[in-house]
Here is the input.
Amino acid sequence: MTKKTVLSVDPGTEKCGMALVQRDENGNIKLLWHDVVPADAVIVKLHEAYIVEEFHLVILGDSTGSKQVKTALRRHLPSMGLLVVDETETTIQARERYWEHNQRKGWRKIWPATLQVPPEPYDDYAAMVLAERVLTEA
Here is the structure.
């Protein structure tokens, strides 16, 4: 398996989740960088992610706001690979990823993680789920 790094974007009308995800030679998935940004700041933040690790593919969710983000990406980075993927069921999986990366405290330790909504936006973890889907299939 080859090492591969991708930037994934979970688009929305007001905010977008972004995640820079890397698959190593052994198939292990690692979250290198992530953020939830205003929808009009995706291009600026894309450069921040590129400084962390070079990537040559952007994965974009196909639902709300994807058309605007796709247009902005094509205008700004016409030669960058762009893969639009189905976002079905990413919300529940994103909640799980959020709680895997953020320790539950107090009463949250008692309740199952899958029944809890994170206390902050977790669109970046939805983006991570999109990247995982592509990197584990490729």
Notes: The mean pLDDT is 94.
